[in-house]
Design brief:
The chain is mainly α and 144 residues long. The chain has a single domain, classed as Four Helix Bundle (Hemerythrin (Met), subunit A) (Up-down Bundle). Helix content is 76%, strand content 6%. A two-stranded antiparallel ribbon has the order 1-2. Helix 2 packs antiparallel against helix 3.
């Protein structure tokens, strides 16, 4: 029960940070529990992006790009705090691609949004391969 409460608090904390992007110059590092909740939210948001692009919902797609950029800023802060340079670089690439997604969506550019989504997804696999491992309960950060 305590773990559920902790996860709920982490999810709410992460969501609150996503609702107010750009308030701070640099994101504060989040905990591993918050990071796990953030990864789940990233996955769900990427699903939304795909549906919004396919439906040509450009304002929603642009908003998704802004949310993704804020999430990737948290991911970058997480890895920066742990001195994992390559993972932080992948997160920075996610920030850049998320900005490209928002820009392409604001211009109603189908090909541009699809390309940006592909670039975002291209950051996920290498990071997951290098820095996470599967457990009986899901995934965790690989010990260093």
């Amino acid at each position: 029960m305590r773990l559920r409460v902790t996860i709920a608090v982490a999810t709410i904390t992460a969501a609150a940070g996503l609702l107010a992007p750009g308030l701070g110059a640099r994101q504060a590092a989040i905990s591993e529990i918050e990071f796990d909740a953030l990864m789940k939210e990233l996955r769900l948001t990427l699903g939304d992006v795909e549906q919004h692009i396919d439906s040509r919902y450009w304002p929603e797609t642009a908003d998704d790009g802004d949310r993704l950029a804020a999430m990737f800023e948290q991911v970058q802060a997480f890895w920066d705090a742990r001195d994992v340079e390559e993972a932080a670089k992948l997160a920075a690439a996610g920030i850049t691609a998320s900005g490209a997604l928002s820009l392409a969506a604001s211009r109603n550019e189908l090909d541009g949004t699809r390309e940006a989504l592909s670039e975002i997804r291209g950051t996920c696999g290498p990071c997951h391969q290098s820095y996470r491992e599967e457990t009986d309960d899901g995934y965790r950060i690989k010990p260093r």
